[in-house]
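Contributing new records

If you add data, match the layout below exactly. Sequence lines come first and carry their own label; structure lines follow with theirs. Keep one chain per record. Anything else will be rejected by the validation script.
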Amino acid sequence: MTAFALAAAAFAACEASPRLVVFGSAPLIVVAVLLVRRRHRRARLVAEMLLACGIGAYVGARAATPPVLPGPLVAVLDSERRASIRGWITDGPEQSAGGARLRVAIEGIDGHAVQVDGALSIVNGVPALLPGDLVRFDAHAHAVRGLANPGVADSSLLARANGIDCFLGVGHAADILRVDDDARVLPRRPWLWPFRWAAQARHALDGAIDRATAGTSCALLHTAVLGERRNSDARVEDGFRAAGATHVLSVSGLHLAAVAFVFFVGLRRALTVVPRLPLWFDPRRLAALLALPAIAFYTLISGDAVATIRSALMMAVGLLGVVLGRRTRPVVAVAAASGALMAWSPLVLFDVSFQLSVVSVLALALLSGPLAPGFEGLPSLPGRVLRGVGRLGAATLAAGLTTAPLVAHHFGEVTPAAPLGNLLLVPLVEMVVVPFGLGGATLAALAGDRWGGPLLAVANGGARLALAAAEKFRLLAPVWTTRSPNAFETATLVVGGALSLAALPRQAGGRRVKALAAATLLGMGGVSLVVRDVSRRHDPDLLVTFLDVGQGDAAVIQAPGGGTILIDGGGTYDGSFDPGARVVEPFLRARGITRVDTVVLSHPHPDHLGGLQRILARFPVGQLWTSGDDGHNPEYHRLIDAARARGVLLPVPMKEALGPTVLEPLGPFVGDGGGERIGPPEGSTVNDASLVIRLAFGSRSVLFAGDIEADGEGEVTGRTAAGQIVASDVLKVPHHGSRTSSSAELLDVVRARLAVMSLGWKNRFHFPNADVVARYRARGVTLLRTDLAGAVTIRVTPDGDMTTSCARGCQ
């Protein structure tokens, strides 16, 4: 299974051709067949590994190959027009900020028959729809296409892993019309019945929880019991994150294990009291058999996330072992569940929750038992209590230490209080909130609130205690942000940490070998981290990366000597996507950057400002440059207040050097009693008041033009008469290629060899303008676009050699 997973992940990541993999894997298959004929155990093991590698390579390559979409859908995607969609609701609705999300099995587009799956987003409102409803609506369709940035995971992989072929969007819930009634719809799609019943059950449980509780404890009950992240408070999430217990804010494997335990134990005890039943059936086997559909139904109710499905499959393997009278080892259950998920979609290997859940469960299964203290010789009750606490502490230590490198890799943070946080919060949520909340909501939905009320009151009390504890962790426990280890470092640190724990118990076999292997792996990972950091700090070259943040701007400058400058942070107008959290921070941490010397905001429009809040909150920042124009945007004042609260300097931008790199503002200027200074000219637009920056390194230079338009460009070019140098080798195209920018006058003065457009794929503004593109081509300027090429990285050596690379290939 490990060989299959590694091969599938490697070939899915490199997007190899399936045909090439078939020919390349043929020698492996031949060798495997020859080895199978030998009766030696090691030969067969090698044969199985070779066979698994070959199959995994092919499956990974097939998974990485984008699916062939039907012609009617391709026509809609290319034309960027609204299309008439007809299809079946298969999942949802799931509430989001002000709206909802649904999954639709599309059967018709503009009257053409198709069979594709789409993810439908509704901006406003939540429709009263259930799985199995046949609907019709007009929507814009978008291709499954993620952002391409070095060191940042491609978000489209997760969508493709879940079988999503396209994204759909409508403005209001009322835009979606139900075509048929339930009686006519369901017989045509019987496989949707369980999903429909689960949605109806979830709605009933929601109502029971809402009637019995209120406030943040009600939101926590919805989250922990039903997996609904609605009305979540950012401070609550910060508290659970500081406690290292964010996994309890979703229906994780522990939740499902608690529910499965209650079902199994409760059914077994109930069956033992049925007269004469034990004479005919084994109550333990019958309870396991009856618990299987209950666990499957709860998985559907809680949203069938990847981690939940993996846990459900593990429970099913274990319960089937009980039914068949066979003992199932946890490792076998993990392998079977993971294999089933990877057979369904190998891209699930790139899902963060899948990785964390598999590693944590393996750590619990293999390490927590040997690590737990025995407390032999103590009286019965104290010994049992101490052994229970010891087992919980050992499980927390095993899961926390082995998953810490993965958390650092994906989220760039380490929570040192996690062992204590899990020791306090996990039992409270898993033993009180989840079972009492689910049991109380079920009783209230079936028999009335007075029957389920007492259990929900207990669950509400547990939720309040958990929230109070999380608040203490938020105020007192540190969250250390860190550089993100790469894949090699993460693997060595995970395995090395697991081996170090395995070598701790005195009764462990091969302690010296395990300790030596752990020291070797941990040393390799640590040395790699140090070498990468030293190389970055002593790199003599200048690196400028124009990030792919969609419709917006963000550029990272890595100066020789380790200095870092960030110009803009991307953003969206509706706040639905935070590129600071999803792109800029992961890129910085993947590059080993933990401090930003200068943050530059060109102008306070959301597509430039939105991602900077995250950077100021998560990184030490030396200074923040702005033109002083607030653009009547309240978010600008929030950014300034956050900078002041964190001690970030707010100087008037002036020419300064960061080692051999010189940063010079070229406008806008306003008159002052003592001369001119950077500031927004009276009467200028927000775009024309953009802070324009020229970066010089040796004989090369880069001009960051913000979103200046005709007036702003005229001011910049007009100052050349006063001796201001504007000519640059690279130009960040102003205003994303809008027709109001990139005038012939500006291009003739800058005389750039390379121009970079930062814009979104098929954006709603229809940038870039064709005339603007023609002006660049007429002057022989190489034009690169982040919507086509992904992130664009320019490396400049001290000798002036300049090379360019693109995440999707420079076209």
